């Protein structure tokens, strides 16, 4: 599994007669945010942090549109510049890059607590004695970022993402209805949930 590269160009270094003499507080804060995010939200994802002196290499980030330190790049893409880094932006960018580097494995269900279709999907898997990992995308930001990064390329950027989103043996299935078809489960509409894709069509 290849590592995700995080590059930070901090306000430091020298170029010709110019030299940075005043430390950058936001650059130091950005580094602390990155290191703490790697240890927590990004735990388990291989990451390499590369700290660079902006003034000594100012032309490198400039090619990507970066001109104001601290400049933060994830796999060569600028995600922040000119201010202390927001850890949510970093988490989303790294997880998206990781999703492009590594395919999903095993049986996975992304859902949320108050979703009846998520409960159906979990029941189908439990009744079929299929072990799975369940991630709540409302309570776990990392799960939300990963679900979006993996689903959007499949369904298209303009298609709304709903839950559940399901993978079996690393293969994308879709939602609860697609799972029921895969497992050959007979679905009985529940009138208490109101009209939905599983509800019988009223006679005209």
Average of per-residue pLDDT values: 91
CATH class value of the largest domain: Alpha Beta
Alpha-carbon Rg, integer: 22 Å
Can you give the helix content as a percent range? 25-40%
Shape: elongated
CATH level-two architecture of the largest domain: 3-Layer(aba) Sandwich
What does this structure look like?
By secondary structure, the protein is of the alpha+beta class. It has two domains: 4-101, Glutaredoxin, CATH 3.40.30; 108-193, Glutaredoxin (3-Layer(aba) Sandwich), CATH 3.40.30.10. The chain is 34% helix and 21% strand. The protein has helices at residues 25-39, 59-62, 87-101, 116-127, 141-155, 176-183; strands spanning 4-10, 14-15, 18-19, 47-53, 71-74, 77-81, 108-111, 133-136, 165-168, 171-174. It has a four-stranded mixed beta sheet. Strand 7 (108-111), helix 4 (116-127) and strand 8 (133-136) form a beta-alpha-beta unit. Helix 3 (87-101) packs across helix 5.
Relevant terms:
single chain, 204 residues, alpha+beta, Glutaredoxin, four-stranded mixed sheet, 10 strands, 34% helix, elongated, disordered C terminus
Short description:
With 204 residues, the protein is α+β, with helices and mostly antiparallel strands. The protein folds into two domains: 4-101, 3-Layer(aba) Sandwich (Glutaredoxin); 108-193, 3-Layer(aba) Sandwich (Glutaredoxin). It has helices at residues 25-39, 59-62, 87-101, 116-127, 141-155, 176-183, and strands at residues 4-10, 14-15, 18-19, 47-53, 71-74, 77-81, 108-111, 133-136, 165-168, 171-174.
Topology:
Elements: E1 4-10, E2 14-15, E3 18-19, H1 25-39, E4 47-53, H2 59-62, E5 71-74, E6 77-81, H3 87-101, E7 108-111, H4 116-127, E8 133-136, H5 141-155, E9 165-168, E10 171-174, H6 176-183
Parallel strand pairs: 1-4, 7-8
Antiparallel strand pairs: 1-5, 2-3, 5-6, 7-9, 9-10
